[in-house]
């Protein structure tokens, strides 16, 4: 199975999960306030060790790397921008370029400055210009070094976790507030998209490629009764497609960024709106292998999702795909099976720019702490030594040759 010569191969990190000590962030304050069992603390010390991590990626024959900027470092207090931190991220991007790693830069990966959260965060329309002001600062600093921008990572995961099930800050449980936040994120992306393109145009630079990273889920009816089939249809429309379609209507996607991990097996218990939108099978029907968090491993779902996206006639970039497991053979099998399904979709005419594995190194997995091991490289949290796993070396061979045996 051969992939195109210009295909991007790489892995991803996000600032809060690897940098450590993001003390001006809403997550940092929330961890302390709720007494999270495993707080982020120094995380993986990537803030100090980013060159070491990029050497690792280069040694694994990657030619791209996805990362995020931590807004709370750039603007720790409202209106106070840190030249030191902007210069830090400039050096981060230059370090990638020096290693011939294409930077894919995410501007918002779940976390907010604490001052922004205290003003109402994404629930408050009046705060949206603050995000755009931050975007302008970063894009001006990096525009001549970056081609790929991701404005917002997994907006529906953020909304689901923070405003529907309430497991992440600000821990709301309101469909009404969730709807408000979705609309605000949509409108912010559209404005950020136009802003980024305008900056490049004014500077006489080639047009950038701007998107979001959209988590996609196959919603599979547990059994084919009418209630489950209708629920799966509704969830696919509302969770997978509605956000993307609105951005396409506003001509604010240059490609579709896809994050893919698992499926949801829909099994509606009650005739209530919450059940219709959230219930999943609890009785282990249609059992599949699972990762260490209990998520179903469903590689053919990636193929199904990609074929569903083909109709939009936009290139697709797999920006996250990965498994947390203690069994590294299972990690390689996960990568292999997903690449196989990715190649199958491409053979049927789906345009895919690249494949980014989540993640380069083991890291802080939000409210789950440091237990889940997603990394191509193991992180020793006592010494912060990185050790490439065998799966990383097998993925390295694919990255080097563009061939999946």
Task: Report on the architecture of this protein.
The chain is an alpha/beta fold and 405 residues long. It has one domain (8-217, 251-261, 298-401): TIM Barrel (Alpha-Beta Barrel), CATH 3.20.20.80. Helix content is 44%, strand content 15%. The chain has 14 helices and twelve strands. The strands form three sheets. The protein has an eight-stranded parallel β-barrel with strand order 1-2-3-4-5-7-9-10, surrounded by six helices. The protein has a two-stranded parallel ribbon with strand order 6-8. Helix 7 (128-142) packs parallel to helix 9, helix 12 (300-309) packs parallel to helix 13 (328-347) and helix 13 runs parallel beside helix 14 (390-401). The longest helix has 28 residues, at 175-202. The radius of gyration is 20 Å and the shape is globular.
Would you summarize the structure shown here?
This protein is of the alpha/beta class and 405 residues long. The chain contains 14 helices and 12 strands.
Q: List the total number of helices.
A: 14
- Rg calculated over all Cα atoms: 20 Å
Structure classification: alpha/beta
- Main sheet characteristics: 8 strands, parallel, barrel
Lateral strand order in the biggest sheet: 1-2-3-4-5-7-9-10
Average pLDDT for all residues: 97
Tally of discrete structural domains: 1
Question: How many strands in all?
Answer: 12
């Amino acid at each position: 199975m051969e992939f195109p010569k210009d295909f991007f191969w790489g892995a991803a990190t996000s600032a809060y999960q690897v940098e450590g000590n993001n003390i001006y962030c809403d997550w940092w304050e929330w961890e302390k306030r709720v007494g999270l069992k495993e707080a982020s603390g120094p995380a993986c010390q990537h803030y100090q060790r980013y060159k070491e991590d990029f050497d690792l990626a280069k040694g694994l024959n990657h030619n791209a790397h996805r990362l995020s900027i931590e807004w709370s470092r750039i603007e720790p207090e409202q209106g106070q921008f840190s030249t030191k931190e902007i210069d830090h991220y400039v050096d981060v991007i230059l370090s990638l370029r020096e290693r011939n790693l294409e930077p894919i830069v995410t501007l918002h990966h779940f976390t907010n400055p604490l001052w922004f959260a205290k003003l109402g965060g994404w629930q408050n329309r009046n705060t949206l210009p603050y995000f755009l002001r931050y975007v302008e600062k970063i894009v001006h600093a990096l525009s001549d070094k970056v081609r790929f921008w991701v404005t917002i990572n997994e907006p529906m995961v953020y909304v689901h976790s923070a405003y529907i099930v309430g497991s992440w800050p600000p821990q709301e449980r309101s469909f009404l507030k969730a709807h408000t936040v979705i609309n605000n994120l949509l409108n912010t992306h559209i404005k950020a998209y136009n802003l980024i393109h305008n900056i490049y145009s004014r500077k006489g630079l080639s047009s950038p490629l701007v998107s979001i990273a959209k988590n996609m889920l196959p919603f599979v009816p547990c059994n084919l009764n009418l209630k489950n089939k209708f629920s799966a249809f509704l969830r696919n429309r509302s969770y997978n497609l509605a956000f993307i379609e609105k951005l396409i209507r506003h001509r604010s996607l240059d490609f579709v960024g896809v994050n893919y991990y698992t499926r949801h097996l829909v099994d509606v218990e009650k005739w209530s709106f919450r059940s219709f939108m959230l219930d999943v099978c609890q009785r282990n029907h249609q059992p599949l292998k699972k990762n260490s968090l209990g998520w179903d491993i469903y590689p053919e779902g990636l193929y199904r999702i990609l074929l569903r996206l083909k109709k939009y006639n936009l290139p697709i970039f797999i920006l996250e795909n990965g498994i947390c497991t203690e069994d590294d053979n299972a990690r390689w099998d996960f990568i292999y099976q997903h690449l196989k399904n990715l190649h199958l979709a491409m053979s049927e005419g789906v345009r895919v720019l690249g494949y980014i594995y989540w993640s380069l190194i083991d890291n802080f997995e939000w409210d789950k702490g440091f237990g889940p091991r997603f990394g191509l490289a193991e992180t020793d949290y006592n010494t912060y030594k990185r050790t490439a796993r065998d799966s990383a070396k097998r993925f390295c061979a694919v990255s080097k040759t563009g061939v999946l045996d």
